[in-house]
Amino acid sequence: MCGIAGILVKQGDTAPVFDRFERCAQLLRHRGPDAFGRMIERNLALFHYRLSIIDLDPRSNQPFPGNGSAARMVYNGEPYNFRDLAASHDLRLQTTSDTEVVWSLLGKLGPDALAELNGIFALAYWDPAERSLLLARDRLGVKPLYWTEQPDYLAFASEAKVLYEFQERLRLDPQVLAEYLHFGNSVGNQTLVSGVQKLPPGCCLQIDTESGRSSLMRYEPPLNELAAARSQTVVGQHQDSDPVAAVRGLLENAVERQCISDVPVGAYLSGGIDSGALVALASRFLAGRLDTFTVTFDQGEQSELALAAMVARKHGARHHEVHVRTADLEARLADLIYQYDEPFADPAALPLFLLASANQASTRVVLQGDGADELFGGYGRHLDYSQAWLRRLALPALALTSSARHRQSMINRARTLWTRPQWLRLGLSVSEMIGQDPLQVLTAQARSCLTATEPYRHYREVFQGLEGEPELQAMLFTDMQAVLPNRFLEKVDKVSMMYSIEARVPYLDNELVDYVMALDSRLKVRGGVSKVLLREATRDLLPDEVLNARKVSFGTPMGTWLRTTLQDFAWQRIDDARRRWSGLMDCDALTQLMNAVVSRTASGPESALLWRAIVLIVWLERYVAKIDLSLLEDRPAHG
């Protein structure tokens, strides 16, 4: 994995612009500490920071190729089928790198090559003959790519902070601010900074470097259309196999492909089915060379440690329990929040951050289980939607006999299940803000500026074409397109690359995704049991204790931390808001939320909203010299 950036100057003197942008691009050094390269050609400059994983020789440094006599490419990613592609297209290669395969295919097929890449990537390919620049991102959005177009230039980078640094002023987008407070992250293709966008998954941007004109197009249709179009073909390829056997074979193929590396490979092991299955299979392909890592910290759940160690022992992996103290977390939080480019309030980022920071010297490649829950139905909301009518009726009754701790949660789940229309119901299930007004942490003036926003708009857009699908099937497609790229894959990429670690996600292998997404959702969640298909496909690989355990993860005791380790940090951020952001943040509302958390009377949604507000304040403080709040005025939401 690497860091890429570039700028096309549309008018004016290029030299000072290139120099300033290159200084900004240095913010990507953590993504690629092994080599730096640049290409400057007339009004176009490309920059690359390399993390060497495949073909460690300098001949594979970028921009690729090293001479300037042909098309050039900067690229971040890994198509795991690159050797198969080289053979099937009879490519004559000078290196053993995946980079040369991608570069060669783009030269041979143009944008049509992108659909053949089974892996994760973000790239920029410059064709001097056509005077064109192609930007592209993998179809599920595993690797990030941000871009902005201004009257004088068009620029892109692996991390938005490069573009923020280059701009003189940063204006907040009201639509994204509303999304963030509802979900804890942006959910569409616009960032919180107006005009800085994410290249959508499965899309490419073609730019004429002479005129500066650009056009955005899809090289892959949206996932629900793709799965529908390919369902007969994909299922037909495995018609002689039952789904359990087919999933097992496809998962084995995916893991084997993603174990290809010229540096050691490790795996993060939580003690659950997803990561446990990956470790079981990877240990076969790496023959005793697999290191596994799990994290434990003070004031956190310890129950998954024994399960993780059990899986590692069963498969002969070298297991490492990374014990970290949270006492110094406060001093490091600001850097973590800055790394995410936008306010990002998923608490699960914290243990992943602690694990990556403690593990950076041990491995450069890790396998992670992200995507399995969205693919096979692993969340509590998937159980609710697999039995929607039953749970609509049963949850309120169960709430009457439940403890006070769980009563409101059950009531909220029932209210969500009764919500109409369906796309709003799906969004509320993820935001977990039913019964709460997420904008309560903003001043009345700021709230009035957000009246034209539609926080759940992206869910409405993604849901188009899913009308009539069974409730669970619609949720799985929506999760894959709205939740996975903007929350979970964002979480993984930014924190792993912060410490120059390449994270691989075998469950998002193209062939596995195509097959599983085309299957009836009743094969995945059934009878109140989640991930039925994955459990059956991996039953011989995992101990019964893991297969039968409740869902576990790298747990984050955020409520406990806010009352203890992070209490001073939270109060200080509220003071910061009172001093500098009183026109935006309602500090009295923040104080009330904080008091409720400290006194243990806050609900789960209230604690989550407080953390979102604190993260937003920390992010604002980082850009205090550049933030311009004048855009928060009554106007149509960003389109």
Name the descriptors:
639 residues, alpha/beta, 6-stranded antiparallel beta sheet, disordered C terminus
In short:
The protein is α/β, with parallel strands linked by helices. 45% of the residues lie in helices and 15% in strands.
Note the gap between the termini: 32 Å
Quaternary structure classification: single chain
Share in helix:
40-55%
The number of E-state strands comes to: 18
Number of helices: 26
Structural class: alpha/beta
> Strand percentage, roughly?
15-25%
Rg on CA atoms, Å:
24 Å
How does the major sheet shape up? 6 strands, antiparallel
Mean pLDDT: 90
Strand order of the largest sheet: 2-3-1-8-7-10
Bulk shape: globular
Spans of at least 5 consecutive residues whose pLDDT stays below 50 are: 633-639
